[in-house]
Amino acid sequence: MTADESQHTRLTSSVAVAASKVPEVTVAFWITKALTTGMGESSSDYLVHTLPPAVAVVLGFIALLGALAIQFRARRYVPWIYWLAVAMVGVFGTMAADVLHVGLHVPYKVSTVFFAVTLAAVFTVWFLTERTLSIHSIYTPRREFFYWAAVVTTFALGTAAGDLSAVTLRRGYFSSGVMFAIVILVPAVAHWRFGMNPILAFWFAYIVTRPLGASFADWLGVSHRRGGLALGPGPVSLSLAALIVTFVAYLTVIDSRARDSTAKSAEHVA
After folding, report:
1. How far is CA 76 from each of CA 8, 21, 128, 176, 250, rounded to the nearest angstrom?
2. Per the count of CB atoms within 10 A, which of 126, 144, 157, 159 is most buried?
3. How confident is the model over 198-250, as pLDDT tens digits?
4. pTM score > 0.85 for this model?
5. Dihedral of the alpha carbons of 46, 79, 216, 56, in degrees to the nearest 10
6. Angle of helix 3-19 versus helix 233-269 axis, rounded to 10
7. All residues at 6 or more sequence positions from 148 whose CB lies less than 8 Å from its CB, including other chains
8. Integer Rg of the chain from CA
9. What is the 3-state secondary structure of 93-117?
10. Is residue 40 within 8 Å of residue 94, measured between CB atoms?
């Protein structure tokens, strides 16, 4: 391959990434994702205890639809739009799992299995339709729909799994958080050292970030009687939201620099 061909290949790859509706997977991505899971958990708890539960769920659903509408209308990945959608998924995904347990009295074991089967069905239909589950290929409306269907389901599954560990199995929130912190290292090490499929590794880690963030958020917010620090879900939610804003601002700067670099490379090739 000549130098010009190599440069053209790199440029084509950069343009494909630029057209994607989701961010590149970096350390900042995983930190922000974990923060949104914690914020979603604490915000949901605050809303359902401050407002009538039915009203809180309806408001959460409306906020989710609004955020996703903005995301789908965007022509490319925009950090604040994408992470707003993820944050709203975090809030409503928690509510969806809690409705099954609190409202319909479905045991966490059953809801965990239910959401796991639902997620498997989403992935199966997605793959049979698009022949890929790669997040680097999210640049058509249909693929974006499958992506967000998977994201919503992973949040609900993670919520149920986290509560199953902390409440049903009585591990407590802090111990559950530590356990999920160890579990999330499995796909990282397996991909890094043993060549685990990157798509499988990504979705494995993505699911685990939900109970990881939520367990620590619950530990910070719940009462001493429940094994927490009793800081309250409201203050925890606001603190995590502030951290999310900080990381999204950082990701915005990084994204802007990357797009400027791609544009300059395109001008050079032209």
Report:
1. 22, 5, 25, 37, 18
2. 159
3. 999 999 999 999 899 999 999 999 999 999 999 999 999 999 999 999 999 99
4. yes
5. 20
6. 150
7. 68, 71, 85, 89
8. 19
9. HHHHHHHHHHHCCCCHHHHHHHHHH
10. yes
**pLDDT at residue number 262:** 63
Q: Report which residue type is found at 13.
A: S
Closest to 43 measured CA to CA, from 244, 247, 203, 250:
244
* Separation of first and last alpha carbons in the chain: 19
What local confidence, expressed as pLDDT, does residue 10 receive? 42
Enter the tokens of residue 229: 């620090």
Which residue reads 């440029």 in tokens?
11
Q: Return the structure tokens found at 187.
A: 């796909």
What one-letter code names the amino acid at 68?
A: L
- Give the span between the Cα atoms of 157 and 208, in whole angstroms: 9
Question: Tokens for 221?
Answer: 């917010």
Task: Supply 42's token pair.
Answer: 């604490």
